[in-house]
Design a protein that fits this description.
The chain contains seven helices and seven strands, in the order αααβββααββαββα. It is of the alpha+beta class. The relative contact order is 0.15.
Length: 206
């Protein structure tokens, strides 16, 4: 079995920048919305295929811990901007309380992701071009990491002093902790990268 490291996956994916993922989905017989019901994970399945990973597994094999994230961008006043925030990881209150930033699941996930920017042309659009591929390794920006750490520390302290229900999407400059699930009464929370962080990551990949 061929081992695909994160570096290998990025090299493989970058070969497809500028190509249409929808056409590649049809080539590899990955259903998108042909049945009348949208396959919400089709872009992720195509990207895994292009990266060299088995589409039947959720993560890289054999302990090579990285994930692919598909991030939709659209044109706003002639500028490419992220369509939405991006989930990083679910929050376990005990883990958050007991883990400093650099030992946290949040940082482990964030620094190990491969980010793929995909053009969004509307729901069930005929094309979805791969715009860019990058990872958090770009960063020699100590200030950015310090500010992400400050967000994490603020959220961690708020949990300790005000409780789990106090965590909302209003907190944090770069990352936020908000409900994940249906309805405002959801009792789950997850860390999300704000649109500003997603945009920053791709700006630094150029």
């Amino acid at each position: 079995m061929k081992i695909i490291t994160r570096a290998n996956a990025i090299i493989n994916l970058k070969k497809y920048i500028g190509q249409d993922l929808r056409s590649l989905a049809l080539k590899y017989k990955i259903t998108t919305f042909e049945t009348g019901k949208q396959n919400k994970v089709w872009k992720g399945l195509v990207l895994k295929k292009l990266a060299g990973l088995d589409t039947n597994i959720s993560k890289a094999p054999n302990g090579l811990n990285f994930e692919l994230k598909s991030v939709s961008f659209y044109l706003k006043k002639d500028e490419l901007v992220p369509k939405e925030t991006m989930a990083i990881t679910m929050i376990n209150p005990n883990e958050l309380i007991n883990s400093s930033f650099y030992n946290s699941h949040c940082w482990a996930k964030l620094k190990s992701m491969i980010f793929c920017a995909v053009m969004w042309n509307g729901k069930n659009a005929a094309d979805a071009k791969l715009l860019s591929v990058t990872s958090f390794d770009f960063t020699d920006d100590g200030e950015l990491i310090s500010e992400i750490k400050a967000d994490y520390d603020f959220i961690r302290n708020k949990l300790a002093t005000e409780g789990f229900a106090s965590l909302t999407g209003r907190d944090g400059k770069w990352i936020q902790a908000r409900t994940k699930g249906i309805g405002h009464g959801s009792n789950t929370r997850a860390f999300y990268a704000r649109k500003t962080l997603i945009k920053k990551i791709f700006e630094n990949s150029k």
